[in-house]
Amino acid sequence: MKQAEFDGKGSCVRWTETPGDEPARVYVHGLGSVSSVYHAHIAARAELTGRRSLFVDLPGHGISDRPQHFGYTLEEHADALAAVLDAAGLTGAELVAHSLGGAVAIVLAHRRPELVSRLVLTEANLDAFPPPTAGSSGIASHEEDAFVDGGHARVLEKVGPLWAATMRLADPRALHRTAVGLVLGSRPVMREILEDIPVERVYLQGELSGALEDRHALEAAGVRVVMVPGAGHNVMFDNPDVFAAAVAGQV
Q1: H-helix or E-strand spanning residue 121
Q2: Phi (first) and psi of residue 64, to 5 degrees
Q3: What is the pLDDT of residues 192-206, one digit of tens each?
Q4: Which of 25, 179, 205, 224 has its CA 20 to 30 A from that of 246?
C-alpha cells in the first residue's frame, strides 16, 4: 500500500499497485466502491498482465482518509487523483475508470492533461443532474446531517449486498458530499470535456443499461463507444471478457 497527501493537512489518498511496464494503468472505482474489488480480477487477466497497475481509492472511500473539512467535489477528487500520479512518478497514464471514477478521470484529464494518455470509461457520469433513479441522486436527495445520522444505514439496506459491501466502508459524510458533487457535475460539464480532450477515449455501456445518450455526438468527437452484451452498470463483473478486451485495446 502506498499513499500521497491530498489536502495540505496530512490526509492521504492510498492505493495498491503491481509492478510492470509503463504506461501504467490506473484503475478508479465508482461511488461507494473500492478499486481493487472492481478491477483486480481484470488486471490479472493474461491480456493485461505485465503493465504497472494502480488501484486507487478516492478520498472518503476504501483505505483512503476521509477528512471532515474536505469538499469532495469532482475537481477535488481529480486533484487527489493527480496527487497519486505525481507521487507515483507517472505521466501519460491510462485511466480505467468506472461511473463516478470516470467523471473524476475526465476532470483530471482536463486539469492535468500531461498525466493522461488514454481513458477507458465504464458508464461514467457525463451530465449534471442525473435522473432520480441514479444512485448519486438518491444519496444527494438527503440533507447531509440526516444522511449521516440514519440515511446511510437505510441506503445500505436498499442497494443490495454487492454495493453495500463496499459502500459500508465509505465515510457517510464523504459519500454524501461526493454524491452531491457528482450530481452538480463539473464546469465545463464532463461530456463537453470528454468530447474535446485530445487522447484516446473508449466508453463502455452495458447493453442492459439501455442506450447511451447522445452516443452519435460522442462518436463524432472521436470517442469509441462499445455496447457490452449481457452487462449492466458493472460491466467488469457482468462481461469481463469484453471489458478486458477493451482495456487491452482489442475491441
Answers
A1: strand 116-122
A2: -85, 160
A3: 999 999 999 999 999
A4: 179
User: Position 233: which residue type?
Assistant: H
The angle formed by the CA atoms of residues 188, 192 and 193, to the nearest 5 degrees, is: 75
DSSP state of 114: G
Quote the cell numbers at residue 133. 433513479
Distance (Å, rounded) from C-alpha 201 to C-alpha 17?
23
CA distance 109 to 166: 26
Using alpha carbons, list the distances in angstroms from residue 11 to 14, 26, 63, 187, 223. 10, 21, 12, 26, 35
End-to-end CA distance of the chain: give it in Å, rounded. Answer: 32
Residue 75: phi and psi, rounded to 5, are -65, -40
d(CA 130, CA 94): 27
24-67 per-position pLDDT tens digit:
999 999 999 999 999 999 999 999 999 999 999 999 999 999 99
Concatenated DSSP letters of 124-178 = ---SSS--TTSHHHHHHTS-HHHIIIIIHHHHHHHS-HHHHHHHTTS-HHHHHHH
- Please, which residues have CB within 8 angstroms of residue 223's CB and are 6 or more apart in sequence? 194, 195, 201, 202, 203
Q: What is the dihedral of CA 3, 91, 204, 192, to 10 degrees?
A: 110
Sign of the dihedral through C-alpha 164, 237, 82, 2: positive
What does the block give as the cell for 19? 509492478
